[in-house]
Amino acid sequence: MRIGVITFPGSLDDRDAQRAVRLAGAEPVALWHGDHDLAGVDAIVLPGGFSYGDYLRAGAIASHAPIMAEVIDAANAGMPVLGICNGFQMLAEARLLPGAHTRNAHQQFIRRDQKLSVENADTAWTNQFETGAEIIIPLKNADGRFVADDETIRRIEGNGQVVFRYVDVNPNGSMNDIAGVSNERGNVVGLMPHPEHATEPGFGPDMTDAMRSGTDGLAFFTSAIAALTRA
Amino acid sequence: MPTILVEVMPKAEILDPQGKAVAGALSRLGKDRYTAVRIGKRFELTVDGPVDDAMLAEVRGIAEDILANTVIEDVVSITVTE
Description:
Mean pLDDT of chain A: 97
Largest sheet of chain A: 9 strands, mixed
Low-confidence stretches of chain B: none
Shape of chain B: elongated
Structural class of chain A: alpha/beta
Radius of gyration of chain B: 16 Å
Strand order of the largest sheet of chain B: 2-1-3
GO molecular function, one term (chain B): ATP binding
Number of domains of chain A: 1
GO cellular component, one term (chain B): cytoplasm
Order of helices and strands of chain B: EHEHE
Strand content of chain A: 15-25%
InterPro entries (chain B): PurS, PurS-like_sf
CATH architecture of chain A: 3-Layer(aba) Sandwich
Largest sheet of chain B: 3 strands, antiparallel
Number of helices of chain B: 2
CATH architecture of chain B: 2-Layer Sandwich
Subcellular location (chain B): Cytoplasm
Oligomer: heterodimer
Structural class of chain B: alpha+beta
CATH superfamily of chain A: Class I glutamine amidotransferase (GATase) domain
Order of helices and strands of chain A: EHEEHEHEEEEHEEEH
Enzyme class (chain B): ligase
Number of strands of chain B: 3
CATH class of chain A: Alpha Beta
Distance between the termini of chain A: 12 Å
Shape of chain A: globular
Number of strands of chain A: 11
CATH topology of chain B: Mth169, Chain: A
Strand order of the largest sheet of chain A: 2-1-3-4-11-10-9-6-7
Radius of gyration of chain A: 16 Å
Helix content of chain B: 25-40%
């Protein structure tokens, strides 16, 4: 199983995502934004960071990168695609996911270990969770406020396309506490918090039983492997 | 050199936290007659030669597809200056 991680100018968490893929049991493949080549991978991760300095809008310029033509074709053909933070913003800008992101309502950059509820455990990136499960993974962003018009909110809530919701604290003013969404088919998922930073004991978020012990992010990547194995 | 000006504003129903912060600052400075401030963007596209209808149509496309995200923003004007 080969999972590609695309590096854009300004990506920060591409190597963390590669490491998460490896810890989950798949082979990480480094992909480059300027290529028109997915190197035959089975799934794709768009990592976090500040591509192109987030000039214009977060993820906007990267969403027009050369490799995004292939990403859009692959996503539309059903390949599992995960967008984390800046990657989520790119997928929204590319219209592969509904909604958009604006500056956090409180105007501050925020970094916290964030509790989420898994609202839909039937996507390519969440099938190893139980619906309703609560997980903790790190969040860190400035432009994380998920917004969409009323009709879109109604539609994605009705379709089960709200995949993650913030629990206890809404850290950025996202509508309906939405932390992550999917496309209708469930193969494309995006979220603001960072599952790749919660995949190895000792390097994850603080949990109630021990500091830095959180590994709730690992199931994102094992879910993709399971989805591909089933397919 | 002709310049095409494209102005983009956040949609009315979208919270504009930057505008809100400026409105708060004005109020703290005693400039309290202003009930709201919204911040948008102005793009200046300089061209080397005359601006014709075809170019304006192309800029309309660029504005809707790239300069603005029409989920959250509106292109409010496209004008030409010399």
